[in-house]
Design brief:
Blueprint: H1 2-8, H2 10-29, H3 33-39, H4 44-65, H5 81-85, E1 109-111, E2 116-118, E3 123-125, E4 130-132, H6 137-160, H7 168-204, H8 209-213, H9 235-243
Antiparallel strand pairs: 1-2, 3-4
Helix pairs in contact: 2-4, 4-6, 6-7
């Protein structure tokens, strides 16, 4: 039963939720800007902060529980759009996944953790306990943006609650909980900012993390002399396709990559 709980991601999601609300509660209970606004009867900022935190949690669960684009069957309709972007000499032949025995679309990859093939596979996120792929990649990026805003605001609030003291020893004792919260918030802010920057760049060039990191192993990329992604259609078109295009994020043909 314990193994099933780990596999389902229950403990990871519960830990994320618990940590989020513990830090939020600390910011409301200590003498921070939030507490001062409440005491003055100014509830706008506390309510907005609470709603932002709630929104980040909702996005977290939406992305972590969403189907990232699992390949369910062999019925892949080839549009030919992606194949036209790859030179015929470097276009691989269709192949079946060696694990789930399904024919992989182009840009799909088998995830060893999820034990499924994922369309337009980007990476498996251990903090989400889910893959990031064709269906949830844009929402993953939106989640990172909302989470970063919540973290930076929380950092500002925590700093406002640090109380002066006569000595370092007394200051550490008086602010130990806020200092612990500040350390956690600073680490998470740096990580989320880095991830947001990386994924914005990859979206702008129409490339996935898997393709960027393992280019030498991807059959339709390893023999290309050009370092640019063959799916790159320009900054504006790439961002439009990533955030606004309906249906698959990348029009798939029945041409898979090698794992």
């Amino acid at each position: 039963m314990v193994q099933n709980m780990f596999r389902s991601g229950f403990l990871v999601r519960a830990s994320h939720t618990l940590l989020t609300w513990v830090i939020t509660l600390m910011l409301f209970l200590h003498d921070t800007d939030l507490r001062r606004c409440e005491e003055r009867g100014e509830l706008l900022l506390p309510v907005l902060f609470f709603l932002l935190v709630m929104l980040s949690v909702l996005f977290y669960f939406a992305v972590s529980l969403m189907d990232p684009g699992f390949v369910l069957c062999d019925s892949i309709k080839a549009s030919g759009e992606e194949e036209s972007l790859i030179p015929q000499s470097s276009t691989p032949r269709p192949r079946r996944c060696g694990y789930c025995l399904l024919q992989q679309p182009m840009r799909a990859k088998h995830c060893q953790t999820c034990q499924r093939c994922v369309r337009r596979f980007d990476h498996h996120c251990p903090w989400m306990e889910n893959c990031v792929g064709e269906r949830n990649h844009r929402w993953f990026l939106v989640y990172l943006l909302v989470q970063l805003l919540a973290l930076l605001w929380a950092l500002h609030i925590a700093l406002s609650g640090l109380a002066p003291a006569a000595s370092w020893d007394l200051w550490l004792r008086a602010n130990c909980f806020l200092l612990a919260a500040l350390a956690v918030l600073a680490v998470f802010s740096a990580v989320v900012l880095l991830l947001l920057g990386i994924h914005l760049y990859l979206a702008s060039v129409n490339c996935t993390t898997w393709e960027f990191v393992s280019r030498h192993r991807v059959s339709y990329l390893k023999n290309r002399g050009d370092e640019r992604s063959p799916f790159d259609r320009g900054l504006l078109c790439n961002l439009w396709d990533f955030f606004c295009a309906c249906g698959p994020a990348a029009r798939e043909g029945a041409v898979p990559n090698s794992v």
